Amino acid sequence: MELIYIPIIILLIGLSLFLFFRQKKQHKIFMEEIERNHSETAATIQEANESHKTEYEKLESSLYQHYHDEIKRINDNFVQKLNDKDKYIETLQEFSINRGEVETHNLLQELKYELVGEGVITYNEMIIGGNLFVPIWEDGKLYTRQIDHLVLLPTGVYVIETKHWAGTVLHGVTKNNQNDETLSTLLDNMFSSYELKKEQTVVIKKMLNKNRKVDGRSQLELRLLSYGNPAAQVMRTALELRKLLLKENKKYNFVTPIVYYSYSSDEENKVINYSENQNVNVCIEKEELAAFFKNQLAEENTLFTASDLENIYRILKAKNNIDK
Fold first, then answer.
1. What's the predicted TM-score (pTM) here?
2. Fold of 96-166+228-323
3. CA 263 distance to own-chain centroid
4. For residues 123 and 157, what is the distance between their CA atoms, to the nearest angstrom?
5. Which region, left, alpha or beta, applies to residue 166 given φ > 0 means left and ψ of -120 to 50 means alpha?
6. Residues 11-39: pLDDT tens digits?
7. Which of 40, 59, 185, 272 has the most neighbouring CB atoms within 10 Å?
8. What are the extents of the domains in the chain?
9. Quick check: 128 and 109 in contact, CB under 8 A?
């Protein structure tokens, strides 16, 4: 009986060894397959990484170039705007009236910093505005009067008409307030007798006549030019502004008109003031205009608070935005 089991045991051992080595071989094949798959996966990932890296570098380069071009465009645009601004300022200064307004604005700003620095006023107690308009409605039609410069101080509201005229300016001449016979004859030829009952302003200028030459050289001649009556102009503007402000508040009853001749005096350029109009202040050159405002503040006649000044300016700005 025991002899019968021996072959069976041997067969079972042989089968077990067969299965063992077969399983071992399959395990080896399986591990080799895993290793091969791992290597292929690693290679694929490496290839993908390199591809992504290349794409990223291309995208980065493209974005860099895009933003570099955009920054250059913005910078070029900014530089162009600066150049346009410089050209605009230069253009303004090519024309005497515009240059005068620019210089007057700068003068008023400097005066404000000086007065604030000296403790005469606070920063909010001086407001400077320019190129504003007073809307006027008459018979259903809208008219405007331009304000070259508006100055708001505790002592009042000031309207400045700036004139930057070269030559000899004869301000406020009439038939009766000058005794020069030659000038009187010239005025008679420029104005009617009715016009000469009112003050006029004329400018005597030396000018080269390029159409009139002697020995090939343009000849110098004197010209007598009429520019109307700046005092009457600024007075009308002040009155219209006063009417506008009074509609808002009866307290806003003080508007002072000023004619300011800003051209520097020298041998060929000066202002002679013949005017007898006490209602319009005439200031010649920057020192006189600055002195005028300093004297106003020195009188300590306070009419408006800083809040009043802000409200007055707000009213006028609102009217400009709506009625222009």
1. 0.66
2. Trna Endonuclease; Chain: A, domain 1 (3.40.1350)
3. 24
4. 16
5. beta
6. 767 666 666 667 777 767 767 777 777 77
7. 272
8. 1-94, 96-166+228-323
9. yes
Q: Six-digit token pair at 128?
A: 């400077």
* 278 DSSP assignment: T
52-105 pLDDT, tens per residue? 677 777 777 777 777 677 777 776 776 666 565 555 444 444 443 467 788 899
Q: How far is CA 78 from CA 65, 87, 127, 212, 280, in A?
A: 20, 14, 30, 47, 45
Say how far apart CA 98 and CA 307 lie, in whole Å: 31
Do residues 246 and 148 make contact, with C-beta atoms less than 8 angstroms apart? Answer: no
Read out DSSP for 28-96? HHHHHHHHHHHHHHHHHHHHHHHHHHHHHHHHHHHHHHHHHHHHHHHHHHHHHHHHHHHHHHHHHHHSH
CA distance 98 to 201: 19
Q: Note the pLDDT of residue 115.
A: 95
Quote the tokens at residue 150.
Answer: 């508006």
Which pair of structure tokens corresponds to residue 164? 């930057």
Instruction: List the one residue out of 211, 215, 264, 226 whose CA is nearest residue 104.
Output: 264
